[in-house]
Amino acid sequence: MSLKKATRMEQRCVIKFCYRMNYSLKETTKLMSEAYGDDRISYKTINAWYKMFKSGRETCNNLEKSGAPKTATTAEVIEAISETISQDPVLGPQDLALMLSISRSSAHRILQVDLAMMFVCSHWVPSVLSDEIRSLRLNLSQRLREEFESLGEPFLSKVLVAGETWMYCWEERQASVPSTPVRPRSRTLKYKNIAKVPVIVFFDADSVIDVRHCEVNMVLTSTDYESMLNDLTVNYSHKKWRYFYDISRCFAETTFNNNFSDLNLIRLPCPPNSHDLTPFGFFLRPKIKNFMLKANFDTKDSAVTGLTNALQQVPNAEFKMAMFEWKNRWERCIASKGDYLID
User: Fold this and answer.
1) Locate the Mos1 transposase HTH domain: which residues (predicted)?
2) Which DSSP symbol is given to 272?
């Protein structure tokens, strides 16, 4: 215990002693001034403790305070965050804190310390890449370089890119904030609804091709992808895509990979945790995130429609620049032997 704390505890005991000896508050303050001089606690503090002892308090120690637990780092919370991030790696500490009723700092600490994750291209990923994924990243980058050297710049226009994300529906509630001259109106707080919509965005070097979604709280499957791609290859046959590049959760599904021959597409599956190697991760996902922060939708249809309209306003030139940036990134990946690309 520090000297300052010891002195404070000692003076509380003196106040209790003076009260038991029937000294008045004024007499108690005078005695303590003579005994402690400049180190005496304030009159306000003396008055507060004197009244507490007068009302029946016995202990001089601080009472245990109720409220949030000292730590939210329990096995259950860590497991819950790990599972949530695996489904939606773009959620921030504030989102996780609201979902799990913990503090933002606890959520951030669990992500970085307990789960050893880092934020790359708006996604939480493991801080240390496994040798397997590092090898997959390197092999993919080398394959992309070979395809580009074979076809030249037209290769970039022959790639159909896809990326998954979640759209959240919000409900507005008025906060009970009193009206004051500084704050004349009550604030409107946003609360994230439990409903979330899985969305997949298809685009190429020219523009956004389509935005599709599934039922609320459902996860996209290989069957969903096949159905969507069948429609796109028929409706946009003039595009003459030759490759399909994605980072879907269906990465390991053999049936999904084998069925691409029927679509006349060569699949270029991006390895897990490699959002820095896909145009969706480093180019389109940040735009979607900014859109969701500013927008407010209460139904899945309005959310998807709003997102589609926002993405269609992105200039075509930016998509072409993103594809050239993609080329630069696989060159950097080869140079770093498969490591993360930190901007």
Assistant:
1) 12-56
2) T
